[in-house]
Task: inverse folding
């Protein structure tokens, strides 16, 4: 059963629709709603304009219906190219192939909203039973996609990623062995997997980590991003009571599926000072909730972003082993 249930969806919808974004910013869910209204407008306005042009040259009936069909057809052609264009470019090489089923579903959703705008415009010009049925058809068609995409955006924003990024956007070269490590981490449905990520400054450690967890968020898995500094505080934070759970705090680090702990060490070492595994273990073990923390670490899929110096990667691996994590659940990834 999904953690984001109907009550939380309605709470988020109320938050998005009531209040001004000028003083509180916008959410991913709000942006999705605004995007769909934009698609409706891009169907509605051109249909009105095209109808006015057609009526100057043609005196036949149902010009409004023809205008709606022409505009819908235009957007079908445009979105087909928009979707297939990258596939048709032979020079386009992906380290990780896009999820074309997911992208295709998004494209079909957009087309439905374009058509809603076009056929609502046609109905506003002249009433017709055919247009009533057409509008009813498209409105029914977008119910499921709307719920799916709105919920998906909630999973992404609840993850608190610093930016939105997908694996297919990764352009830097990766050896095949690294791709295997990443794909195994994503495809393996076991809990308690650990990925140790090392790399130089600006090698893309955070971007790649966010992309991995974001792919899981899109699959409606619970993900959470935190910096190491904040995580040290979270170790001493109790689990919130069920009554306190609300939007923007639907899960915490102890009950998430995927956790990113970023910047455990700086990529450019400051006077040779680094957080050693033993220091981290002491922070984990010497607090009120050490038992709960240890159990959560053993059960959670965690991406550890550890900095440039991978000479002590064996020490970090040994730390995880000492916590009771199986060796086959630990993977290392070094970026150049």
Result:
């Amino acid at each position: 059963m999904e953690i984001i249930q109907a009550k939380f969806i309605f709470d988020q919808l109320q938050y998005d629709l009531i209040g001004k974004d000028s003083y509180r910013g916008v959410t991913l869910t709000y942006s999705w709603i605004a995007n769909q209204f934009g698609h409706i407008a891009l169907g509605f306005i051109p249909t009105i304009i095209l109808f006015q042009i057609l009526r100057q040259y043609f005196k036949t009936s149902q010009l409004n219906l023809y205008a709606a069909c022409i505009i819908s057809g235009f957007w079908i052609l445009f979105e087909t190219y928009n979707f297939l264009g990258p596939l048709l470019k032979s020079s386009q090489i992906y380290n990780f192939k896009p999820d074309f089923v997911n992208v295709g579903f998004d494209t079909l959703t957009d087309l439905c909203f374009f058509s809603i705008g076009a056929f609502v415009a046609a109905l506003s010009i002249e009433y017709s039973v055919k247009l009533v049925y057409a509008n009813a058809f498209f409105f029914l068609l977008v119910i499921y996609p709307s719920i799916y995409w709105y919920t998906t955006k909630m999973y992404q924003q609840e993850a608190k990623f610093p930016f939105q990024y997908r694996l297919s956007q990764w352009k830097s070269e990766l050896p095949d062995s690294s791709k295997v490590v990443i794909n195994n981490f994503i495809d393996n449905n076991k809990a308690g997997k650990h990925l140790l990520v090392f790399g130089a400054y600006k090698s893309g450690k955070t971007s790649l980590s966010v992309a991995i967890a974001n792919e899981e968020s899109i699959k409606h898995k619970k993900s959470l991003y935190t910096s190491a500094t904040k995580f040290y505080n979270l170790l001493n934070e109790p689990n919130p009571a069920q009554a306190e759970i609300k939007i923007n705090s639907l899960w915490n680090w102890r009950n998430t599926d995927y956790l990113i702990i970023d910047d455990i060490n700086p990529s450019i070492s400051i006077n040779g000072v680094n957080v050693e595994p033993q220091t981290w273990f002491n922070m984990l073990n010497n607090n009120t909730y050490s038992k709960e923390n240890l159990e959560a670490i053993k059960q959670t899929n965690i991406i550890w972003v550890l900095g440039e110096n991978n000479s002590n990667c064996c020490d970090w691996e040994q730390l995880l082993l000492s916590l009771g994590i199986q060796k086959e659940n630990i993977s290392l990834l070094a970026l150049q």
In short: The domain at 161-335 is CATH 3.40.50.300 (Rossmann fold). The longest strand covers residues 301-307.
